[in-house]
Write a structure and sequence with these properties.
mainly alpha; globular; MetI-like fold
Length: 277
């Protein structure tokens, strides 16, 4: 039996066992999925979102509400842009030293104890920052930064530093070592080898990963906004707390607009980076 087939069988068994446990447990809440009350509540909530039987005009039909929440949408977009810029600035000087084949000399460089220590330190930073969710980072950072888009952007950047850094370092680890070794044998120094051989090969992948994570970040802004990190997320929490359901529907519409716009822009930029545009 091949490893792939054994993995597939193992996945199926684990899925069946997991669902069996969920359905068999008395406190799992699985019975609520088929409960008439649950679906009735969901229907009532949906009607409130669109303003059925509402005594006032739905917020998404008011121009002034679109203008007010539009400014919050711009704040959310600014938070995502600032977060991805901070991520890129932090990852750019560290993903090359965070690659094993750079630190141990497999690409033709001279290995050093300092490089090995730096490699382990960078990889530890990648692991720690991505292991903590954005919401937790935001809850910590908002204690020493004033509520607004800055703590949200920093929280998103810290988490995504570990994600983008790990992915970019693994790109370097999978590079063909021939060009770098040839440049090294021609007399290039370690720095010259990194700048003229490894970095140009890894840069398009690095930018592509940044753009992919930007798409994820724009979706995650609502999560960090729930802890007063600003933007649409904060207003989302307030509207939900005060039962302003049509305002909630308007905020969801803005999120859809932002997500679609960022996805389209990111896809276009990736095509430019990879030469397919």
């Amino acid at each position: 039996m091949t490893f792939a087939r054994a993995s597939l069988y193992g996945f199926v068994v684990l899925a069946l066992v997991s669902w069996g446990y969920i359905l068999a447990a008395t406190d799992s809440g699985a019975a609520d999925l088929v409960s008439a009350k649950t679906w009735s509540n969901a229907g009532n909530f949906s009607r409130q979102l669109i303003g059925v039987d509402s005594p006032t005009r739905p917020a998404y039909l008011e121009v002034d509400r679109w203008l007010v929440t539009g400014r919050l949408a711009l704040d959310t977009l600014a938070m995502s842009v600032l977060a991805i810029v901070l991520t890129g600035v932090a990852v750019l000087p560290t993903f090359l030293p965070g690659a094993r084949n750079v630190s141990n000399g497999d690409l033709g460089g001279a290995p050093s104890r300092l490089g090995t220590l730096f490699y382990h330190g960078v990889r530890l930073a990648f692991t720690l920052t991505r292991a903590v969710p954005e919401l937790v980072w935001a809850m910590v950072i908002v204690f020493f930064l004033s509520p607004g888009i800055l703590p949200g952007a920093v929280a998103l950047a810290v988490h995504n530093y570990g994600v983008v850094g790990r992915l970019s370092a693994e790109v370097v680890e999978n590079l063909e070592p021939g060009p770098a070794r040839a440049l090294r044998s021609a007399g290039a120094s370690n720095i010259q080898m990194l700048i003229y051989s490894i970095f140009p090969q890894a840069l398009p992948h690095f930018i592509t990963y940044l753009l992919y994570r930007w798409e994820v970040i724009i979706r995650t802004t609502v999560v960090v906004g729930l802890v007063s990190a600003g933007g649409l997320g904060r207003e989302f929490r307030l509207s939900l707390s005060f039962f302003h359901y049509t305002d909630l529907a308007l905020l969801i519409m803005w999120y859809l607009i932002l997500v679609i716009a960022v996805d389209l822009l990111s896809a276009w930029l990736r095509r430019l980076v990879t030469g397919r545009g």
